[in-house]
UniProtKB/TrEMBL annotation:
Name of the protein in its database record: Phosphate transporter
UniProt family annotation: Belongs to the inorganic phosphate transporter (PiT) (TC 2.A.20) family.
GO terms classed as biological process: phosphate ion transmembrane transport
Chief place of localization: membrane
Subcellular location: Membrane
Species this protein is from: Actinomortierella ambigua
Length: 502
């Protein structure tokens, strides 16, 4: 079915452009690496699209144009929706290739509006729905900014500005985690997925499930995560592994390793310099010599006498290099102008900031889940219309026919592929080029964005996550201590211009 190609292209463009919104702050603040962000976001985006992607899809497929005008010509509506997917995906992919953080929601709404006007004129457009959507584009970044500013200012005045900020942060971390989990679980269950029947649960049951999950997380954070962070950050047990956070009280106190013994152990494990060069004829040794660097390994292999085994290995490494290219980029390369803007921001205790790294990953997952729930509609809404006409030979007048689960899953997978291969370009633009982002600032921006997007998703409003994260990032910049000087207004103007070009 040709429309599957169109949705794949449109969803791919969404993954390449909009998914970066969720983890750009986390990568920009160096809480996690680009590769880690891409892998985590792939899971969160798919789950958000599959579990909660149906309400906004209803708005896209039946709330923009008057489907009753196409009742006698269902094939015309099918053609129009296919054209809307082609048009929106072409623009989004073009913008993504240049690192422009455009709104995929703008693109699909504009495309669907265009096919309605082309088919029957302006009368086919439901202008009240358009006005509501456009209003949400204006209100959502303001709301996201207000929520984000409130979260950051509470964090700033309760924790960051104090001399004992680390101890205060250790007390606050369980509360932050439990509140974030409560909101996330509440939205998942309250909105639900039609196939799971969660939305039919009584509100009391939903609140009970949410409180239960948040209480369990609070207890884990209090008895396990908080001691782990205290030992690692306050007491300096740097040898603790991340997985030991799940059983910290049972981990014995570890002595600081002797640096001389560490160096000796490293030499014994890896050999003296030049030893690996003597073994360059063996493929495995060459790979070890390159310490995992694909480019060095390829060069070493090509410099040796080719064999069938080496040729196959070269093919494997080249394929691996192509597939992982989008996860190996450095998005934190800033100009002197941007570095000067970063210098104006107030810096807080770096050890305390590390507390928020784990929390920022959680809120970024939250924001990524929210994005998947909202923006998958941009691609699956038109496809759901095409599929309905294909199967029934008529137009869904109500515009509320259920979106098949496999359609949501297909859109989620295509979004993940776009993120894996091309998401780094837009992430580089949003990461640190609007304002300085530390883990505490990034956590506030991610949580404020996800709250706004999930609320709008519940209401069936296809808001722009690009607008929301931009509003949130600007808000934390304005709260950073230097006011207007902490914001890259030139970049904001550029982003706003790209929003209006679709």
């Amino acid at each position: 079915m040709p429309s599957l190609c169109y949705i794949r292209s449109d969803s791919y463009g969404i993954g390449a452009n909009d998914v970066s919104n969720s983890f750009s702050a986390a990568v920009g603040s160096k809480a996690i690496t680009l590769k880690q962000a891409v892998l985590i976001a792939s899971v969160c985006e798919f789950l958000g699209a599959f579990l909660m992607g149906s309400s906004t899809a209803d708005t896209i497929k039946g709330g923009v144009i008057d489907n009753t005008l196409f009742a006698d010509q269902p094939e015309l509506l099918m053609l129009g929706m296919a054209c809307s997917l082609i048009g929106s995906s072409t623009w989004v992919l073009f913008a993504s290739s240049r690192g422009w953080p455009v709104s995929t929601t703008h693109a699909i709404i504009g495309a669907v509006t265009g096919i309605g006007i082309a088919a029957f004129g302006a009368d086919t457009i439901q202008w009240i729905s358009i006005a509501k959507i456009v209003l949400s584009w204006i209100v959502s970044p303001v709301c996201a900014g207000i929520v984000t500013a409130a979260i950051f200012l509470i964090t700033k005045y309760l924790i960051l500005i104090h001399d004992n900020s680390l101890r205060r942060g250790l007390v606050a971390i369980p509360w932050y985690f439990s509140i974030t989990i409560f909101i996330n679980i509440f939205y998942i269950v309250f909105k639900g997925s039609p196939g799971l029947g969660l939305s039919a649960l009584p509100i009391g049951t939903i609140l009970g499930i949410s409180f239960g999950c948040s209480a369990a997380v609070f207890l884990w954070c209090f008895f396990f995560l908080r001691p782990y962070l205290r030992r690692k950050l306050e007491e300096g047990e740097t040898t603790l592994k991340w997985y030991q956070a799940f059983y910290t009280p049972f981990v014995k106190k570890q002595e600081h390793p002797d640096p001389h013994l560490e160096a000796l152990h490293h030499e014994e494990s890896h050999g003296l310099p030049g030893d690996s060069e003597k073994k360059s004829g063996d493929v495995a040794s060459i790979h070890s010599h390159g310490h995992g660097d694909i480019n060095q390994t390829l060069k070493a292999l090509e410099d040796n006498t080719p064999t069938i085994r080496k040729r196959l290995y070269v093919v494997f490494l080249r394929l691996k290099k192509k597939l992982s290219y989008g996860m190996e980029q450095d998005i934190n390369q800033n100009t002197e102008e941007i570095d000067a803007i970063h210098q104006t921001a107030t810096k807080y205790d770096p050890t305390t900031e590390q507390l928020f790294c784990v929390l920022q990953v959680l809120t970024s997952c939250f924001a990524s889940f929210a994005h998947g729930s909202n923006d998958v509609a941009n691609a699956v809404g038109p496809l759901a219309t095409i599929l309905y006409i294909w199967e029934n030979g008529s137009v869904d007048i109500s515009g509320t026919s259920p979106v098949p689960a496999w359609v949501l899953a297909f859109g989620g997978i295509a979004i993940d592929i776009g993120l894996l291969t091309y998401g780094y370009k837009v992430m580089a633009t949003l990461g640190n080029k609007i304002t300085y982002l530390s883990p505490s600032r990034g956590f506030s921006a991610s949580l404020g964005t996800s709250l706004t997007v999930l609320t709008c998703s519940k209401l069936g409003l296809p808001v722009s996550t690009t607008h929301c994260i931009t509003g949130s990032t600007t808000a934390v910049g304005l709260c950073s201590g230097s006011g207007l000087k902490s914001i890259n207004w030139k970049m904001l103007g550029f982003i706003a211009t790209s929003w209006g070009t679709f």
